[in-house]
Amino acid sequence: MLSLTEYKEVFLAYLQEELKVMEPVNLYHPVTYILELGGKRIRPVLVMLGVSAFQEDVKKALPAAAAVEVFHNFTLLHDDIMDAAPLRRGQLTVHEKWDANTAILSGDVMMILASQFLEKYEGVTYKRLTTLFNRTAIEVCEGQQYDMDFEKREEVSVEEYIEMIRLKTSVLVAAALKMGAVIAGSSEEEAQKIYDFGLNLGIAFQLQDDYLDVYGDAATFGKQVGGDIIENKKTYLYIQALKNVNTEQRAVLLDLYSQNLEENMLKIEKVKAIFNANGIDKLTKVAMRSYTQKAFQVLEEMDIAAERKTLLRKFGENLMVRKV
Question: What is the pTM assigned to this prediction?
Answer without folding.
Answer: 0.90
